[in-house]
Amino acid sequence: MIQNIMDWMQRLGPRLNDAFLVDDRYKAYLEGLKYTIEIALMAILIGCLIGVVIAIIKVSASGVRGLKWLNVLCDLYITLIRGTPLVLQLLIIYNLIFTARDTNEVVVGAVCFGINSGAYVAEIVRAGIESIDKGQMEAGRSLGFNHIQTMFYIILPQAIKNILPALGNEFIVLIKETSVAGYIAVPDLAKNAQYVGSRTYDVLPPLFIAAAFYLIIVLGLTWLLKRLERRMGQGDRDKKSKKSLRKHFRP
């Protein structure tokens, strides 16, 4: 058993070389990586925008009788998006909305992934807003801010600190989900890996290489998020230490 695994590993090296270096095939992975990052970045922006708007509407409209229909629409959107497969949403949006011949598949993918991510971001942001003490809203209104200003300048900055790990996890999931963009002929990283496999007649090595690219992206994003969390946490600890010092040396 062990000998078979060792033999397979020894044969894998030349196969990886053939799938990555021969005929400059690495350029296909880099080209696909460019499309993957473009789609992911645009989808994150769209998802954050939709998620924040939906979360604010849900929190604000839930206590106002005349605006409950907005809450119902938001719940319907979240239920539909979270209750149906992403691949089906991608195909429906591509075939139902973007029907022109000159449709940019990258834009279609970004819009679809952004709409999908927006439903999850909305629930994350809503939970973060509701975790903030209600007195913060009253304090903002007492300073002369209206409801929206208080939400953006006081509530959301505090909520982001609480939901940053969950948001980071959603962004990581979104990057990996972009691998299904090939269903609408986007030459992303996964699609180009399949293309290389069709040229070498060896499917597994290109898939391993694509998986390594995704892993590097995820590890890099995880590292950045952890640094951001530590930095924000350090700011909170510095504030607490300053308060304790003021109390200790107060005359």
Explain this structure.
InterPro entries: AA_ABC_transptr_permease_3TM, ArtM/GltK/GlnP/TcyL/YhdX-like, MetI-like, MetI-like_sf. Keywords: Amino-acid transport, Cell membrane, Membrane, Transmembrane, Transmembrane helix, Transport. Belongs to the binding-protein-dependent transport system permease family. HisMQ subfamily. The chain is built from 9 helices and no strands. Helix 3 (68-82) packs across helix 5 (105-130) and helix 6 (135-142) crosses helix 7. It has helices spanning 2-20, 26-61, 68-82, 86-96, 105-130, 135-142, 147-177, 189-200, 204-249. By secondary structure, it is mostly helical.
Question: What are the defining features of this structure?
Answer:
251 residues; mainly alpha; MetI-like fold; 9 helices
Fold blueprint:
Elements: H1 2-20, H2 26-61, H3 68-82, H4 86-96, H5 105-130, H6 135-142, H7 147-177, H8 189-200, H9 204-249
Helix pairs in contact: 1-9, 2-3, 2-5, 2-7, 2-8, 3-5, 4-5, 5-7, 6-7, 7-9, 8-9
Short overview:
It is found in: Cell membrane. The chain is mainly α.
Radius of gyration: 24 Å
Assign a percent range to the helix content.
over 70%
Describe the main β-sheet briefly: none
Instruction: Based on the coordinates given, report the CATH architecture.
Output: Orthogonal Bundle
Please identify the structural class as seen in this structure.
mainly alpha
SS summary, helix count: 9
Could you tell me the CATH topology label: MetI-like fold
